[in-house]
Amino acid sequence: MNRRPLLWFAICYVGGSAAAAGLSSRGVVLATGAAALLALAAVLCRAANWQLAAACAFAVGVAAGHRLWADARNVTELPALLAAAEAEGPRAAFAAEAAGTIMSAPEIDGDRVMFRVAADSIRLAGDGAARVVRERLIVHIRLAEQPEQLTAAAWQRGDRVRLAGELTRPARATNSGGFDYRRYLSSQRIHWLLTVQGTDAVEAAPGPKWTAAALLGRVDSARAYLGGRVDALYPSAQSGYMKGLVLGIREDLDPEQFQQFSRLGLTHILAISGLHVAVFMYALSGLLRFARISRERTLLLLIFAVPFYVLLAGASPSVIRAGLMSVLGLLAARMGKLKDGLHLLAAAALMMLAYDPFIIEDVSFQLSFVVTVGLIVGVQPVRSAMPKWRRGKPLLDLFAVTLVAQLVSFPVSIYYFNQFHLLSMLANFVLVPFISFVVMPLGAAALLLAIPWEQGGKLLAYASHYANDWTFAFVDRLASVESLRTIWATPPLWWVAGWLLLLGILFRVIGRGAQMDYEREIERAENLETTMTMPLGPATGYPFGYEYGKRSRKGLYSLLLLLSALLVYAYQPQILNRQAAVSFIDVGQGDAIHIRTPTGKHILIDGGGTLSFTKPGEEWRKRRDPFEVGRKVLVPLLMKRGVQEIELLVVSHLDSDHIRGLKAVLETIPVRCIWWNGTVKEADDAKELLGLAVSLQIPLYRANAGIRQQLDFATELNVLWPPAIENSQQHVLNQKEQNESSVVLAVKLYQSTFLFSGDINAVTERAVIRNDQHNRMDESEHSPVSIMKVAHHGSRFSTSEEWMAYWRPIGAVASVGATNTYGHPNPEVLAKLAKWRTRIWRTDKDGEVRFRIETTGMSSYKKE
Questions:
Q1: Using CB atoms within 10 A of its CB, is residue 662 exposed (0-12), middle (13-18) or buried (19+)?
Q2: CA distances (Å), 861 to each of 176, 180, 730, in order?
Q3: Do 652 and 760 sit in the same domain of this protein?
Q4: Which residue segment(s) compose the domain that 699 sits in?
Q5: Residue 281 belongs to a domain
């Protein structure tokens, strides 16, 4: 420890900051005390001197205190409005006028403009005068007409604006494990959204020229200019990709293309990071050497050039980390002092956390530092354990880098993204060097050449067209191998820490063994100089002699065994869990129910859907990546819960609010079979869903009343509606109105019964009752249901008195959107439920509703 004091100080500082971010106040005190005890133990064990131990304990305390202080100051300056918003709920909106400075480049996407404003005054409706505040706002402007896009395009960072709109709170996570937009914005010190209708409600004027925001606005203009040049050099299918690769502009990247790269773990290529900074420095230093600039002046020029490149590349956490390390390394080289990579990384982490303690929660920050530490610590030991081939040395070097990067990034990747493709290493092994040393330099050179000579830039860009086509074809080919894409439940944090710790120990063991091998070879060479014979058996002191080799192999095998055990646990964390679970997922105004059986099989009933209508002539309103509930909400949740295969998908009926989210499910998660109501509908989303199921060769079965299936020892399915078709040869019906043909399904888990009733109304409810009475073999089979899904989201035409009297539900769940305009659930329905003393849960108020079922009974619990 004494050899790397800055590194250990930084580790303790990061630990203190992480503890304060994730623990309660009491937990922070306990963590700080534990750190002090560990520091004392290090002194007693002579692993560290008392000065370093005191510094490390001090680092934990200071970092924790810094984060707690930042949390205490991270509050809105509108506390009365905040209390009113919390009391009113998700619909709360307050008319307001705000004045301030634009703090981010305005993003124009279809009919929406978004940017950040540092507001210095806010006037609420009813207030006589504006309040002086320091409030950061996210501004959303809904454009009324297409020409308003040109008006918004003239705004830039640093401009002064006055806006009239409605203040709302960012949405909370309403599903367990779902994305928490409010917490995400809070980590950026933003507590309010301002929604504005049209540019007429915006007054914009240039602000002061020499503020930080105005200077960054000029950088934005330079990025936009260069982005326009890239658009002119490449076809539309490649321009977004090249802008991300060369300039770090990811807004124009095709969503499908990004998804393909994401599945193979290649999105880091599109994030400006250390590799890009290294290529930039290498190219610039080459030009300076060609111009015969001295070494000292070259280092000085690079020190000033790197920050400019960081700003031009978008200043993401990964590029800031790389830029800081580069500048510190250049300063150290100029002074002839510090040259240790881990010290540079530690200094960069300390500087970034001291400036913004909330950045520790940024995924890019975490991945950047974890992977960089892994490469510095792990590549040399892994490479030293490989063959010493001369001809294949570059390939072995590349293999070692790729292997270490994959091993180190794996736990963080599955923690946040819940997938890992088994061809990811091959993709990175082939594409990272190809893109880094061929495509990216070609793209950068073409861009620079196009500024003075556009035709020359196009000639260079033309060469990279073929490289990009090959890259896309290669990515598409690998990503299409769905059988090698694995889904992982989000592991606990102790698992991530344990994996990284064991990996660090493994690298150390491999490195020590390789060093012993090297020393043995030196000793053997010296012995050969003095004698022509060698004793049989291993010589004393050799690392792979009997005693040392046995201990070394045992340690290595033990580490590999522990890592394998962690791997198995992460892939099947619920393998011994015999609880069943039913989750009514909040997908807004729609249905999506996930059932996990006691043996770990998964059933999904419907998938929600976002309704969208585009009138002729309003195609300009379409977003580049429109919100789709399946891709943005449902699939990520299922993956976080480790749903690797869906045993049964039940499509209650073909209305959009039940099926639009299922397209993303079919494209992402294997589905074994589908039950649906046996009809078709002349709607694009319905035809697309059924066509996709057929193309994926997923069996489709008509769910007829009377069908019973025992899925496992504790799970029984009973279809109650629609009725069976008398003529089995009858063609599938084309049915526009789908509600009354909804699949009504009863699912029994242990001794608890759940009733899922789709969107049927009171007339069909009576038909279901008569049909169920007719099909029952024994009246004793009929008993009250434990939980009933309120039919048709609580419409007043459903949930009749007869329905309630027949099923006598103990509890009921209404899947409704918080801002639905249908008045769901209807007050009459709520009154009926109250009359029958049925407990009601609502996804608009309670968020996701979850139930655990065991042999001893059922319990409900809200999102964690």
A1: buried
A2: 10, 19, 45
A3: yes
A4: 580-611+627-724+737-861
A5: yes
